[in-house]
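quick one before i forget lol
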Amino acid sequence: MNFAAAEKIARAVLYEGYILYPYRPSAVKNRQRWSFGTLSPHASGEPSRLVAECLVKTTAETRLDLRVNFLQLVPKATAPEQISEQVREQIPEQRLTDPSLAWDEGIERSSEHDHLRVKDLLHAALLRRIEIGDAGEQRLTGLLAIGVDQIAEDVCRLHVSFENVTPLGANGEAPRAEVLSRAFVSAHVLLGVRGGAFVSLLEPLPELREAAADCHSAGVFPVLVGESPDRSMMLCSPIILYDYPAVAPESEGDFFDGTEMDEMLTLRVLTLTDAEKQELRAGDSHARRILERTEAMSEEAMLRAHGVVRVLRPLGEEAR
């Protein structure tokens, strides 16, 4: 299924909290990763599984599409010999020699499962083992389960779970950095339906309120995405969202912190010292793009980020 209408908000969820201002790996707030939706190996004792349940209005021909999105953290070499002399001179020596300041860069991963007939899932749940990872990298193993229950003549409850079953050393004991190297970071699920329609869990149809209340999710919550009133897509998000969330059209790009204002972060990036900018450039490629985009912003783009009125309403007599 074409998830293009949901990609922008899904990407914002994927990178929420990935790296925070001032976007330097050596900054205290970036020395420990805290991305939402991190699924650690089951043996680690940390959260390892997400569960999403939602309602779907169906016919005999309804089909389901599903995509699991996440980041895989891959070590980024920052040894002095791998950084240019000009940049190295302006990076604190601690950044280059202290192994606790090593930086893992997020690589976008996804696993797609299309054209699943809901009628078939009624008779037998689908269980798939997912292996992710390029040659020379840590391989991740996930277990995806998809099931359907009929709760009315034309309404089904969809159950999706995804669990990290990547092996984790002897007895499951490992340092945090090793656990993260085997984690599905910022994991979330996009759902699409053909020949049917999802039911809002936040504002369900009156006759389905009880059934919606009986849907139980863990680690994520399904909301409608795309253009209202279309109900063909849902995002199972680890971040609290409303139906049909959207990224402001005035936003020039990701800052990895959806709770902050683009204008404020833009101005803060522009006030970084030359040495801080050099470390940022040598640190993470996503952060480097923030700097490049911000420094290239036009005056018009800056004015767009200043603020906008979305809705105007008439004042009541009592407010005059």
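fyi The longest strand covers residues 103-117.
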